[in-house]
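Quick log. Single chain, no ligands specified.
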Amino acid sequence: MNDLGQLSRPASGRLIGRDEDLEFVRSHFSGSLHGAALLLSGEAGIGKTAILDAVAAQAAVDGVRVLRVSGVQFETDISYAGLNQLFVPLFESFDLLDRGHRDALKVAVGIGSGPPPERLLTATAALLLLRRVAQDTPLLIVVDDLPWLDRPTTFVLGFIARRLVGSRVSFLAASRVTSDSFFEASGLTEHHLKPLDAAASAALLAQEYPGLSHEIRRRIAAEARGNPLALVELPTALDREQRTAPTAVPSVLPLSERLQSLFTSRVADLPGPTRELLLIAALEGTGELAVIEAAAGGREAADLLEPAERDRLVAVSASSRRMSFRHPLIGSAVVAQASAADRRRAHQALAAVLVDQPERRAGHLGEATTGRDETVAELLEQAARLRLGRGDALGAVAALTRAAGLSVSPADESRRLAEAAYIGTDAGGDLADASRLLVGARRADPAVREGSLHAAAASALLLINQDGDVNTAHRLLVGAIEAGGHGYDAADEALVEALFTLITLCWYSGDPEKWAPLFRALDRMTPAPPDLLWACAQTFADPARTGYRGLDVLDEQLADLGDATHVVRVSTCAVYPDRLADVREVSLRLVEQARAGAAPVRRHLSALIHLGLDDYYKGRWDEAMRLTGEGLALCKEYGYPFFSCKFQFVQALVAGARGDVKACEALCEEIIAWAVPRGAHGARALAFHARSLAALGNGDPETAFRQATAVSPLTPLAPYLPHAMAGALDLVEAALRSGRAAEAAIHTRALRESAMARLSPRLHMFVLACEALTSSNDDAQELFQQALSLADPEDWPFDVARVRLLYGERLRRRRATKEAREQLTLAGRAFEKLGAAPWLVRAKSELRASGVAVPADTGGRGTLTAQEFEIATLAASGLTNKQIAERLFLSHRTIGAHLYQIYPKLNITSRTALRDALAALDR
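-> predicted structure:
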């Protein structure tokens, strides 16, 4: 077998995204019994040299002697210049050849004198010498840049590559796909290197440039199209500000010197009219030939583009009347080669053509304008509104930032920068850029500190995302609202946005007094507050008392969902009325758009939490864990710690309901650690709720009661703390199980006096179930039946199963054995399907007490939840906790906690026993 058969990974380290390519090379050489040849091909910068280097390094480690040849452009006219590189290191071995072959080879490589030998003689001599040297030590010939090798050398190398059978010589060469070469590759195996995929591109950028803004990384990845050289080189052409601020990056990325040497030289040789048309096309962006030709003064594109098409720089579709650059960096090279005046003229020509497309026209005018121009600034501001309306937050920020740069008055410049900063914090996801814009707004007009609602809202959001507290952010925003010159006009967009931000701050505060300024502002708005804003205040502030008032407006909003911001805000209104299922499909689409980079990260996060909550309520707990894990990863990546607590809350609920008390507690501690120092008592209540549920399932009603009453007093139901409704059943059950019947009755009365039952069937079920628990036996049965008639078990499987369990327990104690068994059986099935282990134990215990023979758990797959089985399978495959966590979007601590629960279920004590234990389950 060929000595390169042991090739695995480069000795110097792993090449990102090239494992499959390296494996192909390894398998190609290992599959060859005697001698092998392989040609790598790919576009410029695709990583051919890196693959050659990796293969050569590993070959050297494996004891193979490596001989390298690299084509050099200025040596293409020197005969056998490449052969000289290959054979000079073997000079001492020339005596292995007979005199005729030895002399011919010496003359060819320039170390002997005499008449030029025939090519066939030279090629034969070269092959013989390589075979004889390889008898002692296997050889690997590595050839890079084949197109730049001289013609005689390529003839000899082609001759050698096709005659290696039976030798210990291997041949590996690389060539660009777009380059002509004298090398005859027919009969040789060719492996085409493809661009890196999205994950590998992201990993390479993160490794090489960890400080890059996330949006800049995404932009570079899109432009590079998986070209490793472009991924590594494009950031070097950006200055410090451009690396962290997406709005500072030009519409066409600049090229580094190295990239210019690859792409610009190909453009420079084109005729002048062709370059002019290509410049217009690069700046136009869509490739629409009708627009490009009109901007070029009506010149016919087909003839002008022919040289570029022939050189494989562009592709032209006659049927669709469109053109495209074969790689985005070719367009960048066209722009880089043009002068600033040429670029401005092209932008001006495009603006003159795009009169019926105001958004695009404004963008081109912005690029063509050099001085202050309020008319163009206003057009850009209008374009920003259009972009924001379709969910393009970053595009809106860029347009507003350019508009600010063209503004005549400092006040307008400051106002536009402040609005850009607010959009960046509220939707865009680039908090560092938003902070920079806010500083710019204050420099342009110091009065922005007192007068700009956008600046105040941006500052408030930045505060709670950093080390500031909710009280300070609330005070800052309320002060700006109450001191503003908006006249409480309901059409004032800045005022409306500020009030939506205020709702967020009030919710986090958990302080009823914090809501008073919001409702004062709503009362003063003329002619009336916007419907969605008003409904959000009703259903999100104190829904147990006012939520039902907003239901009709919520229905209207659900029937006419708009852009990403509208979807998220309607979803927020839908949380406590239990209407998240009505926005599920559109939220899923929003998440998919965000994953593809077509929606802002803040909207991505909001959609994920709404989907996660819906999945929890609907019993899709594994999916809830995946989506919230994705959300936590995004929070960490983009710096949104204030959002993390909501994802941790859903995960804590699932962990608590499944009996994983340790994981639940770890998540609750993280919520509290963030919330308490910042005065975010509303967020802290999430942890109390999850702890109460976990303690109740774990048979600790004392702790459950203590945690539940930390959310709400016995009476009245906690105002302006919506989670008091969700924990109502926990509080009443915990009170009864800890011997506090009077307290349970007091809280039930508080529930009845609230309007909680009017908000949703599930919450009405809770109220009736609590009444049943605190009522006499005669009334309890009817109340339980009413409760169970309200909520569909398919919609609320865990909550309905809990009520069935409570009802079954009551029936058994009344000796209504048959009816009790029915309720307990249904509850047990639901708990088993959910993986709610402690609740299932309770249901089985009650069934046994009713006389039903319930088999004890004997171990096996049935005792593992779907998520536990997946984690166990991944762990058995050899993945670490960290690797499993990354794959499932969970924390490594959560994985460890799951494994701690899995081992006793499988009757094992260590990770090493997992594989056999899982295999036994399938037998």
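The CA atoms of residues 235 and 492 lie 40 Å apart.
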